Each structure stands twice: as structure tokens, then as C-alpha cells.
Give the backbone structure.
Amino acid sequence: DGGITQSPKYLFRKEGQNVTLSCEQNLNHDAMYWYRQDPGQGLRLIYYSQIVNDFQKGDIAEGYSVSREKKESFPLTVTSAQKNPTAFYLCASTPRSGGYNEQFFGPGTRLTVL
Amino acid sequence: RKEVEQDPGPFNVPEGATVAFNCTYSNSASQSFFWYRQDCRKEPKLLMSVYSSGNEDGRFTAQLNRASQYISLLIRDSKLSDSATYLCVVNIEGYSTLTFGKGTMLLVSP
């Protein structure tokens, strides 16, 4: 089955710890995205990557880091510098770069900081 | 500015009702338009793209008004399973990403 997978589904972390969220796609899509969603809020873009070994900051990149070493993988690290990391994190991909394409989403990871 | 504005709702309607959502966008250079559906605690999924001439998919009809910079979604004969949050999504020329509205919540009751 082709699609986007995110793991883990739920993640708990203590304050001051870094944590890495996984995102993998087997759709052969060029572009990948990370969003954060808070209760009652819209999606806010954290980082995106249009091609391997390249990525750009989104609207709320502070306290986050990413890498794009392989086309199918786009992991997100939530660092201890992120002041309010508890949220629902969504990864998405599109066949080609450029904002005019439909985005396909993974099932998300719920991160809770204890 | 690249805001996309939606009435957050919730819209409470009985089964069988017709309901319409509007969405306004601020950037006239917007090129592509979509409606996504998001179920509670799930990821968004594409409901339909919105074309300039308007388009229909079963009980769902999407309209675009470029002059007034708004998009609408009409749902006829509402079903219980239509209960979800509907996200208005816009691509603005020059941006490599999509801009999402905060969503409108729909609750369909028996």
C-alpha cells in the first residue's frame, strides 16, 4: 500500500528532552512538509522540503530541526528550545514541489510534554 | 498577508439539511483552491478541488468567486457521517506551500 506513515502515534516526553518524529512516504513524492496543529487551531507550517538535501523554514520553525537525506524520509526533531511543544504533528507530501498540488497527509503524531 | 478566513462554527444541522460554508482569502494572487475534511483527531483528507467554473461531486458543490475572493462549499442532504471539520485551503502564487484556514466544524444530528 502506498502512503505516508508517521511514528509513533503518541509520544510523551519530559521537559528539556529532544525528540524525533518519523515521517516516511513510499509515494515517490518530491516535496514533504511538517505542520503543527493545536486544539481549535489551523495547521501551521514548520518546515518543508522540495528536494532531497534541501529544506526551508516555515512560519514556526523556531525550536525545530529537520533533515532530508532520503527522498522518502523527512524526520522532525523537536528540541528543548521549543517552548510549547505539546501538539498534534502532521507530515504531508506532494508529487512535485510548488503549492498548487494536493497534499497527502500521514496519520499524525500526538506529542505531549510532561 | 496570506490569511484564509473561515467561520469556525460549529454548524449544527439535522440530517437531510443543506448547509453552506464560506471562506475568504486575502491574496488576489491565489491560484489553487481546495476543501479538505478533517475528522476528530485524524489527519486532513482532500474532499475536493475547487475550479473556476464550479464543480460538483455527489452531494457536494464547490464554487469560486475570484472577484469577491471567496470560496464556498455546499452540502446537500446532510448525513451523520458528514460531521467533521472542513478546511478551506489556498495556494498563493509565489508560495511553495498551501495556506490552510482554521476550519469550520459541522455537526449533523439525527
Notes: The longest strand of chain B covers residues 30-38. Chain B has a mean pLDDT of 92. Chain B touches chain A at residues 8, 31-32, 34, 41-46, 49, 87, 91-92, 95-98, 100-103 (CB under 8 Å). The radius of gyration of chain B is 13 Å.
